[in-house]
Specification:
The longest helix is centred in the middle third of the chain and has 51 residues, at about 20-70. This protein is mostly helical. The mean pLDDT is about 85. It has one domain. Helix 1 (about 1-15) packs antiparallel against helix 2 (about 20-70). The chain has helices at about 1-15, 20-70.
Length: about 90
């Protein structure tokens, strides 16, 4: 990403001084934008993986809590999940 940003800045500077072609600037712009998009997608993928992992952990904890409630006979009535006061 940093390399694409630096290349874009260099090409933009050269193009502004009419030392580089418009095509070179367009290529640098496309490379920079592509690098930004790949970085953003990697951030999204990472966030989704973290959320999935957290959801799995929550589901596992809930399963164990339900098992403990059943094991200890703490349900008020059949089929309910309301706990009695201890």
């Amino acid at each position: 990403m940093k390399q694409a940003e630096a290349e874009y800045e260099r090409r933009a500077d050269l193009a502004s001084r009419q030392v580089a072609s418009k095509q070179a600037l367009d290529n640098a712009t496309a490379n920079r934008d592509s690098a930004r998009a790949r970085l953003k997608q990697a951030e999204v993928d990472t966030a989704q993986a973290v959320l999935s992992h957290l959801e799995d952990n929550i589901a596992a904890v809930a399963h164990h809590l339900r098992a403990d409630v059943d094991k200890w006979g703490l349900r008020k009535g059949p089929g309910t999940s309301n706990l009695m006061q201890i």
